[in-house]
Design a protein that fits this description.
The complex is a heterodimer of chains A (88) and B (645). Chain A is mainly alpha-helical and 88 residues long. Chain A has a single domain, classed as Orthogonal Bundle (Non-ribosomal Peptide Synthetase Peptidyl Carrier Protein, Chain A). Chain A has 4 helices and no strands. The longest helix of chain A is centred in the first third of the chain and has 15 residues. Chain B is of the alpha+beta class and 645 residues long. Chain B folds into 4 domains: 168 residues, Aminohydrolase, N-terminal nucleophile (Ntn) domain (Glutamine Phosphoribosylpyrophosphate, subunit 1, domain 1, 4-Layer Sandwich); 192 residues, Rossmann fold; 104 residues, no CATH class; 68 residues, no CATH class. Chain B has 28 helices and 17 strands. In chain B, helix 6 packs across helix 23, helix 26 crosses helix 27 and helix 27 crosses helix 28. Chain B is globular, with a radius of gyration of 24 Å. Chain B starts with a strand and ends in a 10-residue tail after the last helix. In chain B, 55% of the residues are buried. The chains are: A mainly alpha (88), B alpha+beta (645).
Chain lengths: 88, 645
């Protein structure tokens, strides 16, 4: 389950923020901000992806780097929230 | 205001070459042109007649014929200088400021630069000493480029004139491209063109006997951080500022043709327009750009100010699709790739001024550098404030206050705000502290560079290159002054005054004049305590104090709204133009060899499909498109990346 989520997240990040560059050495724990992969508009794109793909309702308090700033963190966050339906 | 070119050395068919150089920059001087072709040196000139309409033809020589000059710009204190020279027995044959420079050079040699107050670039051919002297104004308003080919030295106001020399061809400098995709502009003397250089602002160059020497004749300098304050009394400082700004505006109204003013609706151009209106009994003409998009449009403020001043106001509308229509011309005149579209509406605006029959406009440009108006100065102050308490959840909320016009940022948590601005991440003693987030976020566009280009650039770091060029005293200055220096010394001449300034105005033969860049005012402002300029998070405080009687409160108290234009969305959507699809298509991108074609295709599709595009994607889109246009315009075909210069 975790691998599937992480694969989906990785595929989204590569497609949307790295423009298909699968050769980019993106470690699971690498910061998306410090590595200039995501900016403020990108965070909103990421939130929309999580809500649409995984049916998760993200509260403002959820949208913090502790939950979203690496593939590992995003995957863990989605796993913890999985099953909570989106309300929007 | 004009354009010129020339050579020093042996040139076959010199007259033909000089005429071709003049023709290449005819837009800079539609009124007259002339050449001076001597065996060892030549000058070509195109004239926009503003001062000494009937007798200021160039190239101009002195009575002996030993000294000849080609001059672009204005010497605003030429009236006073001419009187001083007359008192010393010098006799004048014309009423022009050009002749004043010739006399000054005859009397003072290169030291004449120290007494000139103006926006200038010129070349003086000294036949007797067999030397060419070239110089550029202190802040870099007027351009000057040069190169050497086949042992002959060539120079011109625009690079397109140099490309007329047989054997000189356009080749993109990959290091300059890296600098543009990091710092927004090449670091002078580098230009976008390999082996073609720019004379830096406030520098003079002497070419003689096969030797070339370049040195600064003026430097932007600030007091040491721990030096006693030079102005303790804000009121007297405001009075001195007002007197200097009034005089700077007064001498910039000198012309034998009407002088108008740009009016953006912001503080700076409103101040300049207000001062100029008071000096124009016949009524001032003002000009502005309006936008369809609410987030960019300032027309309500423009109309309020025009009404308050009673000016005869004209506006040009920048509608959806207009930027795309003019963008190829913008790149042709800018002569370099750019990462923002903001020059395009200014190209439209100068066209409007030309249509209305004026040649000269004042602008408010420079006030943000001189009096600390840009958001980046406030941002650096908030980042330092956050850096002192890295775990604070409250302090990062201040970032929202800085950027009310960026909706993507307003929705972020304090933690994300702190992360985006690198609060606490950049060492406080980093010389580039103020600009690190901007350089870092801009450099993210290089994700689109091709493997070949990356290999050519190896580990080149544009930001460190910039840091290596800072003066020794830089580390002793207040952090605000360090940030002001970076803006004033690099981005101002490298982008604001060139790509947005001279090049867009002169594309339509319009001369911009900049009261805030009068060197007396600049030097005065460097000595002001930082808190008089940026008071808390209120920008240009002392300027507001000095001019509050000139403006309606709604204008005088406005928070700075940076001048911006729609970026990638100008080129996508209904009515998308063929050249955009062509330039951004896989074939053309692949031909140029500079960018990753598949990644660019995905970027293009993303910008087409998403309603909002972030900074990196916008900058990358405009940067890539403008680079492709640059290649098509100046090389005639797409080319592969050159080797690193």
């Amino acid at each position: 389950m975790t691998e599937t989520i992480k694969d989906k997240v990785r595929a989204f990040v590569i497609e949307n923020f790295l423009f298909g560059d699968s050769s980019y050495d993106l470690a699971d724990g690498a910061s998306l901000i410090e590595n200039d992969i995501i900016d403020s508009t990108g965070v909103l794109e990421l939130v929309a992806f999580i809500e649409d793909q995984f049916g998760i309702a993200m509260a403002d308090a959820d949208i913090v780097p502790a939950n979203l700033d690496s593939l590992a963190r995003i995957s863990a966050f989605i796993e913890a929230k999985a099953g909570v339906p989106a309300t929007a | 205001m004009c354009g010129y070119g020339g050579y020093f050395g042996a040139v076959p068919e010199a007259e033909i070459l000089l005429k071709r150089m003049a023709a290449a920059i005819a837009h800079r001087g539609p009124d007259e042109n002339g050449i001076l072709a001597a065996p060892e040196a030549g000058l070509a000139h195109v004239r926009l007649s503003i001062v000494g309409l009937g007798d200021g033809q160039q190239p101009m020589s002195d009575e002996t014929g030993d000294l000849s000059i080609a001059f672009n710009g204005e010497i605003f204190n030429y009236v006073e200088l001419r009187e001083e020279l007359r008192a010393k027995g010098r006799r004048f044959r014309t009423t022009s400021d050009t002749e004043v420079i010739l006399h000054l050079y005859a009397v003072m040699g290169e030291d004449c630069l120290s007494v000139l107050n103006g926006d200038f670039s010129f070349a003086i051919w000294d036949r007797r000493r067999q030397r060419m002297m070239l110089a550029r104004d202190r802040m870099g308003v007027r351009p000057l480029f040069y190169t050497t080919h086949g042992g002959t030295f060539y120079f011109a106001s625009e690079i397109k004139a140099l490309l007329q020399v047989p054997g000189i061809s356009a080749e993109l400098d990959p290091v300059a491209l890296d600098q543009i995709f990091t710092l927004w502009a090449p670091i002078a003397p580098r230009t976008g063109f390999r082996d073609i250089h720019e004379l830096e602002p406030a520098h003079l160059m002497i070419v003689e006997k096969g030797r070339t020497s370049i040195r600064p004749y003026w430097q932007l300098d600030y007091p040491d951080h721990d030096a006693p304050p030079l102005f303790a009394d804000e009121r007297s400082a405001a009075e001195e500022l007002r007197a200097l700004l009034t005089d700077a505006t007064r001498i910039r109204m000198r012309a034998d043709v009407p002088v108008g003013s740009y009016l953006s609706g912001g503080l700076d151009s409103s101040i300049v327009s207000a001062l100029a209106a008071g000096m124009t009994p016949q009524g001032l003409r003002t000009f502005s750009v309006t936008f369809d998009s609410v987030e960019h449009d300032e027309s309500a403020f423009q109309m309020e100010m025009a009404t308050a001043l009673g000016t005869h106001h004209s506006a040009v509308a920048c509608r959806a699709g207009d930027i795309a229509k003019v963008f190829p011309q913008v790149i042709r005149f800018a002569e370099r790739p750019i990462i923002r579209t903001a020059p395009a509406p200014l190209y439209q605006l100068s066209g409007l001024v030309r249509e209305q029959g004026l040649k000269v406009v004042l602008t408010g440009e420079g006030a943000d550098e001189v009096f600390a108006g840009y958001d980046i100065f406030k941002e650096a102050r908030v980042r330092r404030f956050c850096g002192r308490q890295p775990g604070s959840r409250i302090r990062p909320h201040l970032f929202r206050k800085l950027y009310p016009y960026l909706p993507g940022l307003q929705q972020q948590s304090a933690e994300y705000l702190a992360a985006f601005f690198g609060a606490g991440d950049v060492p406080l003693d980093d010389p580039l502290f103020s600009h690190r987030p901007r350089f870092k976020s801009t450099a993210a566009t290089k994700i689109f560079f091709s493997p070949d280009l990356r290999a050519t650039l190896k580990n080149y770091d544009a930001a460190e290159d910039l840091a290596s060029r800072l003066p020794a005293a830089f580390g002793r200055w207040h952090p605000l002054h360090q940030a002001q220096y970076l803006e004033s010394r690099f981005l101002l001449p490298g982008y604001i005054l060139s790509s947005q300034g001279d090049r867009m105005a002169m594309a339509h033969g319009i001369e911009g004049r900049f009261p805030f860049l009068d060197h007396r005012l600049v030097e005065f402002a460097t000595r002001l305590p930082p808190e008089m300029k940026l008071k808390g998070l209120v920008e240009k405080h002392i300027l507001r104090e000095a001019t509050k009687d000139l403006l309606p409160a709604t204008i005088g108290q406005r928070t700075k709204q940076p001048y911006r234009a729609p970026d990638s969305h100008s080129f996508t959507g209904p009515g998308e133009l063929d050249y955009v699809r062509d330039a951004m298509g896989e074939t053309r991108i692949g031909d140029s060899g500079l960018f990753n074609a598949k990644a660019v295709t995905k970027l293009y599709e993303k910008c087409q499909s998403q309603p909002a595009t972030g900074f990196r994607d916008n900058a990358a889109f405009v940067g890539i498109l403008s680079t492709q246009l640059w290649l098509q315009t100046f090389t005639g075909t797409s080319i592969r990346a050159a080797e690193a210069a």
